[in-house]
């Protein structure tokens, strides 16, 4: 077994769009494991939009990554050494390994994975993003058959799960996605009733006209993944009593525009009596076993589709992350080592 590991650390805090120079690739000794700890050799890493927030030191709901520390993130790998009861060499596990090819973690922070499904699903369709969609739709979306749902980043792991669950509940589902290929995927792979290319519309008014044409009965649920132009387009189309689970605002993760559009947005919240719920998935982890019992058999049976975009190697991870923030990924972004 090697005694060296490679990791990617945060070298400086990005200004606007992150640059490769904001990260450093380092080789270091693998830390010695203590009682109760496990050494994992990582085979698969997750890249997620929330990581942009962790690169900033602005106050947030979660702590930022310290300068010089390993970038945070979930990984999957095999146990190569264990000083913890219940974990043996060879076990397949997942935990917050960080952007690294090895990680020493307390056993309590690891979860064993089954061997009979692809390991990468623990990072996407059967992991945090899939669970976010499942729990947020049930608790805040409150879908009813016959209603209409709109979601952007619709081919990503959250949006594609939201769309499929809503469709199965009898809703009309409208995808917003970037480019004709993703729009085709939204309809053909994820069963959306229609898909609208946000990149084909320069402004919110034009995008709104396209969404209005696809939603003749208005919008009952807008699942908020992106903010920006899409939010501005959808808000006036909301029906009385509509619901907006606010899950993410990726359009603003590299910096927000001036806030002079807020009057339009918040006037819609007021006049339509909308419920707007902030959703942070770590408030809901107690429901994760229920999510797996419900969704894992459907994934195994092929009743829930998922897409993964597989990149390779630690060295290009910063560039892959930067690209994901502006739509370079198609499906859940995974990095295989
Ligand atoms: N609240 C929580 O606990 C929680 C948990 C998980 C995820 N989230 C949030 O959920 C959202 C989706 O995350 P995900 O994990 O499913 O990843 P994801 O969909 O793969 O996110 C990347 C995608 O976002 C879309 N995007 C980027 N900039 C955009 C813009 N300006 N306008 C419209 N779309 C844009 C792009 O898709 P297109 O090319 O199709 O535009 C891109 O491929 C993110 O905002 C994330 O932060 C929140």
From TrEMBL:
Q: Which UniProt keywords apply?
A: Oxidoreductase
Q: Which Gene3D superfamilies match?
A: Medium-chain alcohol dehydrogenases, catalytic domain, NAD(P)-binding Rossmann-like Domain
Question: InterPro entries, per this entry?
Answer: ADH-like_C, ADH_N_2, ER, GroES-like_sf, MDR_fam, NAD(P)-bd_dom_sf
Against Pfam families, the record matches this protein to: ADH_N_2 (PF16884), ADH_zinc_N (PF00107)
> What Enzyme Commission number does this protein have?
1.3.1.-
- Top-level enzyme category: oxidoreductase
Looking up CDD domains in the UniProt record yields: PGDH (cd05288)
What is a single molecular function from GO for this protein?
Answer: oxidoreductase activity, acting on the CH-CH group of donors, NAD or NADP as acceptor
Enoyl reductase (ER) domain location, by residue? 18-335
- Protein name from the UniProt record: NADPH-dependent curcumin reductase
């Amino acid at each position: 077994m090697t005694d060296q590991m490679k990791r990617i650390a945060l070298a400086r805090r990005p200004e606007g769009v992150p640059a490769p120079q904001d990260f450093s690739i380092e080789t270091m000794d693998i830390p010695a494991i203590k009682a109760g700890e496990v050494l994992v050799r990582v085979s698969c890493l997750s890249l997620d939009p929330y990581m942009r927030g962790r690169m900033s030191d602005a106050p947030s709901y979660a702590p930022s990554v310290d300068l010089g520390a390993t970038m945070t993130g979930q990984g999957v790998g095999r146990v190569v050494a264990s000083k913890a009861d219940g974990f043996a060499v060879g076990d397949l596990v997942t935990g917050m390994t960080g952007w690294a090819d090895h990680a020493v973690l307390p056993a309590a922070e690891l979860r064993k994975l089954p061997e009979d499904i692809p390991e990468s699903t623990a990072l996407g369709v059967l992991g945090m993003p899939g669970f976010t969609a499942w729990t947020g739709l049930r608790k805040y979306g409150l879908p009813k058959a016959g209603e209409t749902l709109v979601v952007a980043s619709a081919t990503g792991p959250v949006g594609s799960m939201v769309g499929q669950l809503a469709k199965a509940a009898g809703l009309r589902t409208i995808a917003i996605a970037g480019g004709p290929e993703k729009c085709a995927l939204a309809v053909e792979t994820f069963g959306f009733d229609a898909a609208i290319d946000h990149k084909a519309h320069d402004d919110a008014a034009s995008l709104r006209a396209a969404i209005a044409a696809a939603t003749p009965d208005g919008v009952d649920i807008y699942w908020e993944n992106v903010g920006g132009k899409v939010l501005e387009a959808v808000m006036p189309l909301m029906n009385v009593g509509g619901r907006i689970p606010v899950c993410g605002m990726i359009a603003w993760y590299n910096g927000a525009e001036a806030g002079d559009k807020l009057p339009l947005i918040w006037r819609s919240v007021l006049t339509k009596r909308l419920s707007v719920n902030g959703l942070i998935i770590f408030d809901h982890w107690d429901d994760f076993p229920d999510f797996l019992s419900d969704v894992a058999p459907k994934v195994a049976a092929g009743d829930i589709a998922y897409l993964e975009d597989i990149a390779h190697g630690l060295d290009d991870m910063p560039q892959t992350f930067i690209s994901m923030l502006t739509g370079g990924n198609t499906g859940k972004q995974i990095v295989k080592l």
